[in-house]
Amino acid sequence: MEILLSPPLAFLLYIPLVLIIERLGKVLAGPENPSPIKESAYGSGEEAPVTAAAPGYRPFFLIAFFFAILHLGMLVLGTGEFSAAILPFLLGLILAMIALLLG
């Protein structure tokens, strides 16, 4: 049973499963009826804003780097053994978090 959990075999099994579920979803959804009302933006009866919601990608990348460093760092720390050898890595992780939080 553990062979099913190996990544290559799981990938080969999950892709057809996902395609079957996707095709079943298309059948259940019914025919498509496009209309201008369905394609228009709805903002509770107000006009849709014409300006960009965010000034750029910088805020997104800061948050993405924060979570990437946090999660990968904790993954590395969690898979190792607790000893004095991880202290420099933990200190570097803390300094990276502080640098990202301060911008």
TrEMBL record:
The UniProt entry, under Gene3D superfamilies, shows:
NADH:ubiquinone/plastoquinone oxidoreductase, chain 3
Give the InterPro entries listed for this entry: NDAH_ubi_oxred_su3_sf (IPR038430)
Tell me the superkingdom of the source: Bacteria
The UniProt keyword set, sorted, is:
Membrane, Transmembrane, Transmembrane helix
Q: Where are the transmembrane segments?
A: 59-77, 84-102
> What is the protein named?
NADH-quinone oxidoreductase subunit
